[in-house]
Amino acid sequence: MTLIAIRLNGEPVEVEVEPRATLLQTLRDEFGLFSVKHGCETGECGACTVLLNGRPVNSCVMLAVQADGKSVETVEGMGEQPHPGWKASAGLHPLQQAFVETGAIQCGYCTPAMILAASSLLEHEPDPTEDQVREALSGILCRCTGYLKPVQAILRAAAVMRGETVDPIEGRLPAPPGLFSPTAPEERAAEEHIAGGGTLQVAVMPKIKIAPDSRARTVIGHPEPKVDAIKLVQGKPAFTADIEMRGMLIAKVLHSPYAHARIKRIDASRARALPGVAAVLTWEDIPRVVYSTAGQSDPIPGPLDTFSLDNKVRFVGDRVAFVAAENETIAEQALSLIEVEYEQLPIILDPERAMSPDAVRIHDEAEFVNFVDSDPDRNLAAEIRIDIGDVEQGFKQADQIFESTYHVPKVQQAHIEPHVVVTYWDEDDRLVIRTSTQVPFHVRRILAPVLNLPEKRIRVIKPRIGGGFGGKQEVLIEDVAAHLTIATGRPVRHEYSRAEEFFASRSRHPMKLTMKTGVKKDGTITANEMHVLSDTGAYGCHALTVTGNTGHKAMALYVGDGPFREAPNIRFYADVVYTNTPPSGAYRGYGVPQGYWPVERHMERIARALELDPIAFRLKNTLRSGEVHPFSTAWSEGREPVPETIQTNGLEDCVKAGMQAIEWKSKYPSQAWHEVPSAPHLRRGIGVAMVMQGTAIPYLDMGGASIKINDDGSFNLLVGATDLGTGSDTVLAQQAAEVLGVRVEDVITYSSDTDFTPFDKGAYASSTTYISGAAVVRAARDVASQIQRRAGKMLSTDADPVKTEEIELRDRRAWSSDGRSVTLREVALNALHHEDQEQIMGVGSYVSPVSPPPFAAQFAEVTVDIETGQVVVDRLVMAVDAGVIVNPLTASGQVEGGMTQALGYAVCEEMLYDDAGWAREVDFSAYHIFAAHEMPELETIFIETVEPSHPFGVKAVAEIPMDGVAPAVGNAVLDACGADVLVAPVTPERVWEALRQAG
Amino acid sequence: MRYLRPKTIEEAVSLLEEGVPMGGGTTLTPDRANVEAVIDLRELALDQFSILDNTVTLGATLPLQAILENAGRLPPALIESIRHEAAWNMRNAATLAGTLVAADGRSPLLTTLTALGGVVKLEPGSRETALHEFLSSRAAAGPRYLITGFEVQLPSGLAYAQVARTPMDRPIVCASAAVTQDGTIRLALGGFGPHPLRLFEAETRLNENQNLAEAKSAAEAAFKDAGDAFASATYRSYIAGVLVERVVREVRA
């Protein structure tokens, strides 16, 4: 041990540390400074940022001993809660305040790091340029925001700190006049303006074309700060790992080094004998229960093919044993002492070989449970055959048929907070699972049989989550910690390393997709067909539903024109196969990004071949309002399909707005624009993609909510819905506040605790605002009517009775039609204490018969180096119809972050394996995600429609930003230089190859 | 693991048998599982930075960010390569010597330094080794050494170019050209393998024959087997020629 002296947040402290302890470990374990986070082990993600002598460094790649004699600052030393009761407070630091106001915080995991880096920058550069701000954030990876709002927040804070005035961010921002007018002159859209005469304008609000038939709202549509923003900006211990428990053990998993092998013998005796090891579990120690890790409703729409521990491993990284020990070092040592004898088996890495008759069978376990057409004999996890109309007839009527094959890669969600779980027995001997999950209720239901515990003895709690994107729609590691808590009786924490995220979690399904489309000379699509080979990896979680979605949403957009529009001819056939690679699972978009790469690249190439305008050709054939969703008669993710009519479709307006914003009409046809005068080796290009997604799954996805009033007229809102940093707690509170006539701060949202909150299927399928929101509105209306009834009585006199129906709720009061009112506080005190006492409380649930799709137009501008194939994406514009926008800051944040994530899919992210099944990517060096200092310009436009199936007219925005970027970029590259790339990502070598082929 | 903090260079050298020198710790920390002892160099004042006449002296424990902030007369292309080498957080801790010891062929900074030439100063023995020789001998096991600094002559021009999947991703191919004060061209090629290559063959073609086309061919030949999980040899080889031509033209302009 070594004694070090540091100045920690201004206070001199001394602490004994092991030489091998990192500064990160010391700050968290010795000092409880949980704002400093673990995101990787190689200093690449920056979540562990601290200021060392005033400069940001990565504390995970610094030994604690190196901090001796230096000052260390964390965000716990900055700012304080503005109103702590009677105590005077200096309030939040201007940087913290700015992050809260601008919507710069989504999951909040990287927020303390960003604030520290910004404060260091502003210390020596009080008036930074945007480039300097981006350079300051260059070492901090964010997967949620796309960096746009954090950059603006820092510029805003800098202005405040210089003593300048800044405009408040409030109100619904109408778009600049002329933006949405079809006859307006082509001008670059003006910077957002905010009413008032302040000096600094930050560009965080999206442009919104407010639906003409939408009613004025008090809370809905306003850029309310997130309800968890102040907690996150102070770095409070809000995440799963931010908890200390006496006797807590650290869990580690022994991972298989072989892609396919039987475990002939496993001997953990030496590991168990190591001092400090509390338990080692192998397949021989725990019950053998088959299940699926997919976080989905009952019955799981997929094969049951997984065991917590098996005597067979099916990918490099598969589980071999679990260890629980006093600390991480001992746990890792114990792993190396477990003796395993493997019998290697043949490996299948190529999905095209998976179904060949001589292929080895990956799933030969007796307990395998089929679902629908799965067939483990052929390594088939799922099979889909959907025919709508008659494509063969359609092809006969075509003038030309276009057929091509496209590929999309395996990519990772790459949330900055790894998978992490803490399990423990509470005092009632109930197993508490505190986990970073999108699906708390599914975790409970799915693990009960695995642990041999009834559901009623399990409680699942979801704290704040540092990003999920579908990676946490999985019961991925909760069983590891739970088994070890059962074995030892002690609390256990299991946290994935970044390397484990890459080789032992989940990913997007890679696919090979063949399109065949019949078209008439005038551009009418007569038949559209897609064949898919989807690789689900070693286990079949989400196999059927992801790939079904590819067809259901990507192949539904184009129905044809004229008679073909009445009766579209669409075919979608898919095989989903097992291979010996880490399992694919749920990833934002859920099959739909995979589908739009081929569909939108294909449509572009058809338009060019027929010499038709690519936008007009598309709009001639796209689905319109009032038409039936073609797949709604043929397939549903959950239940029997029921025909659905599209009620709202803003696609055409999205196209127009996006075209204007990116100046399509002046760029696309202009040869001069495509050239770069000073650089003959560069070409510019512009491209478009049109997309649709869905909003929840009809007849399947259900959410519940309960609301109760408190003495002061505030409300507790309990929802099962899972906020993974998306802001759903806020957006649901807004919907409740709108109904109840109060402010968001009067609604205290508590979510995702299986003991306290009503059921919600979880955060996936773009459902929370719509489904959980509708449930919240039902509960709120129930509460409102109870308030109205009581207020009516309170305001009545014998002479002048007030009817319940005439009471209006607004401004925290209940008003009668003659202008008299009582406060909600008075109503509450009356109800809880004074008269006919009752707890004013309401409950609501909602399941929808329809899934109204959001629509969008995605535009991209690129510059291609035609000598090297290097592509730089300069600009992304997305115009989205997501119905009515509840919160423009959180909604546009979702679009900015989603486009950034999708940009990686377009140009640089892919997961590859060598011949033995070992991953090329195990860190952020090989797997590159976009950083703040290399971003294109991002622009978000919302075209509001009022969706009649929801009380406030909302649809969904969470997933659709993932769908269009890759094909828009691919189309822009084609436009720039003729390079026709059919394989994503569009890497320099692929562009160069395509250029050589184009001649 | 033991923690050692020597007060003098002699003391540090005497500890080389027992432990590993540590500057910023950014590459050592993730790999510390089998390290028996670390020798923290912070007391040795090895973070000097000077430019005297045309001689640039960079101390071993100089953080990369310090080089960037005191750029002065350093060539802009060198600064650009440092920006590409690491992001701000990392640059505040990662040292020059750490980069010399640990960086691989895809290192923008090692590529520009290789083109600049220069010598690595080593103890014991106050030795100087040419950079390209130092890089090629890194892998060989041998007596332990301590880097005290790096010395190089300011060029009259320096250019750097790269191809990558995104503007700040690690390069697939990168190239650097330096013109010394007496007009000689030096070339380096990076993006593959354990360290960037000094293109002596291509340099001869330029310096003695003034033949850019042949220099380009020599660059392509240097990468003819440069295929790995990130790019094919065909591609790297072709791009090597393109980028070498570009940096030569730029540095001559």
Structure, explained:
The complex is a heterodimer of chains A (999) and B (253). Helix content of chain A is 27%, strand content 20%. Residues 182-198 of chain A have low confidence and may be disordered. In chain A, α24 (888-907) links the parallel β31 and β32. In chain A, α11 crosses α12 (478-488), α21 packs parallel to α22 and α22 (768-795) crosses α23. A seven-stranded mixed sheet of chain A has the order 9-11-7-18-15-16-17, with helices on both faces. Chain A has a five-stranded mixed sheet with strand order 2-1-5-3-4, covered by helices on one side. By secondary structure, chain A is of the alpha+beta class. Chain A is globular and about 80 Å long. With 253 residues, chain B is α+β, with helices and mostly antiparallel strands. Chain B is 35% helix and 23% strand. Chain B is built from ten helices and twelve strands. Chain B has helices at residues 9-14, 64-69, 76-85, 88-91, 96-102, 108-116, 131-137, 200-207, 212-222, 233-252; strands at residues 2-4, 20-22, 37-40, 49-52, 55-59, 119-123, 127-130, 146-153, 157-163, 173-179, 185-190, 197-198. Chain B has a five-stranded antiparallel sheet. In chain B, β10 (173-179) and β11 form a beta hairpin. In chain B, α8 packs antiparallel against α9. Chain B starts with a strand and ends with a helix. The mean pLDDT of chain B is 96. Classes of the chains: A alpha+beta (999), B alpha+beta (253). At the A-B interface, β4 and α26 of A face α4 and α10 of B.
Strand order, biggest sheet of chain A? Answer: 9-11-7-18-15-16-17
**Structural Rg of chain A:** 28 Å
Helix content of chain A: 25-40%
Q: How many angstroms separate the termini of chain A?
A: 67 Å
How many H/I helices of chain B? 10
Low-confidence stretches of chain B: none
